[in-house]
Amino acid sequence: MKIISDREFRNEPGKVRKELAGQNVVMTSRGRPYAVLLPVEEPEKLEEVLELADRLKAQMALSSVRGKSRDAGLDKLKPEDIDREIEQVRKQRKGS
Q1: Is residue 36 within 8 Å of 26, Cβ to Cβ?
Q2: What is the separation of C-alpha 10 from the centre of its chain, rounded to a whole number of angstroms?
Q3: pTM score
């Protein structure tokens, strides 16, 4: 994995292309990572790479939601408590 700043990318875009030939590249701005560039070795597989990236983003979002639920203690709810909460929300929606 190679780390490249957006300034370095702007000034030397060819360098990023060379780095991508062999590894993933992490883009940073002011020292903070904000993107990962992945090499696409077979252009005809671009859609597959994008689909996998979307799946990864979805998994990361789910993991975040689970973590927030765990931090709030919601992972300890009993099934009947969950059903009761769902029923209350449904009643609220019908009333709106």
Answers
A1: yes
A2: 24
A3: 0.64
